[in-house]
Design goal:
mainly alpha, Serine Threonine Protein Phosphatase 5, Tetratricopeptide repeat
Length: 103
């Protein structure tokens, strides 16, 4: 899956959905640096992509970069609330509390 998505990116296609797909795929493979790269690019394309904030914050959390995780979760929470994305909102709230305890 990652190879196919990387090929699409190499052809010049670059959008929030593709970057989110790549970021999530790398996250699932525990390649958190790559996940952070692509999820950050996703948010550069679309600042309202609430699931990207959730996944990006979790990637920072997995790397024990708790301050950065908190920053991303704090930015993403109002986005999730505004869009009505209850799933992302709940996960962000849970991981925000965890990350704040680790700081």
């Amino acid at each position: 899956m990652i190879d196919n998505l990387e090929k699409m990116l190499a052809t010049g296609r670059d959008d929030a959905m593709l970057r989110f797909g790549l970021g999530s795929a790398y996250f699932n493979e525990k390649q958190f640096d790559k996940a952070i790269e692509h999820l950050s690019a996703c948010l550069e394309h679309d600042e309202t992509y609430s699931a990207a904030y959730k996944q990006l914050g979790k990637a920072y959390y997995q790397q024990e970069r708790y301050s950065e995780a908190v920053e991303i979760f704090e930015r993403g929470l109002p986005v999730a609330q505004a869009s009505g994305d209850k799933q992302s909102q709940k996960e962000i709230e849970v991981f925000l509390a965890k990350a704040e305890r680790q700081k």
